[in-house]
Design the sequence.
């Protein structure tokens, strides 16, 4: 690679980095994700933007992450947001002692009212991204995901489900709907034991060949 090519690549990286930062700043009021992790999600999304299909987020809170993706991917995609908008269900033993303790610590600054959000916030975030017709499905995953239909399949599936049962619900009902080479982002893999166990259990029980990968602190899987 010539010096000129290296300089060109460096400039391109700096331009994209500034774009990612601007997207984060635009939607940071709608997300709990740190700037570093948020940008890592955007970088992974951009790397796999060639895969056709819908963008689906399960566990959307105020919609800041999927709105950031939508602002870069544009209006030619279908966007689906799934959330109870009533907070998280009760953690169980399989989710680990840290999860049980977190849910009991209601006065913690990281509690966020048990991750409760208003559907109107998610809709506002998507409108800010230029998407006026997102499909927003309110309810628990075991009620809203069975029978979910995506005519063009799923290109990007972002899982922010925290606990074992919720993560497993997403895998059971949506994994097969992800298109080949589709990107599956798993938000809580490094945070909660239940999420980690569900990822391992689903891939193992179904004898899947996918690798568990990481980039910038974000766990992801590429669908075979």
Sequence:
């Amino acid at each position: 690679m010539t010096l000129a090519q290296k300089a060109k690549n460096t400039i391109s990286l700096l331009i994209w980095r500034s774009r990612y930062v601007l997207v984060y700043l635009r939607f940071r009021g709608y997300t709990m994700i740190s700037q570093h992790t948020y940008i890592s999600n955007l970088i992974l999304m951009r790397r796999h933007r060639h895969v056709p299909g819908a963008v689906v987020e399960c566990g959307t809170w105020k919609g800041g992450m999927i709105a950031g993706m939508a602002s870069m991917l544009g209006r030619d995609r279908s966007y689906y947001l799934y959330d109870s908008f009533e907070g998280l269900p009760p953690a169980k033993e399989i989710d680990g002692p840290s999860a049980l303790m977190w849910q009991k610590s209601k006065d913690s600054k990281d509690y966020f009212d048990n991750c409760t959000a208003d559907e109107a916030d998610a809709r506002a975030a998507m409108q800010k991204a230029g998407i006026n017709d997102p499909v927003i499905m309110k309810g628990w995953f075991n009620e809203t995901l069975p029978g979910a239909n995506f005519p063009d399949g799923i290109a990007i599936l972002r899982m922010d489900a925290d606990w074992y049962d919720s993560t497993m619900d997403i895998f059971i009902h949506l994994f097969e709907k992800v298109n080949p080479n589709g990107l599956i982002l798993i938000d809580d893999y490094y945070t909660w034991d239940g999420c980690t166990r569900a990822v391992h259990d689903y891939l193992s029980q179904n004898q899947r060949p996918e690798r568990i990968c990481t980039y910038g602190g974000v766990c992801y899987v590429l669908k075979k």
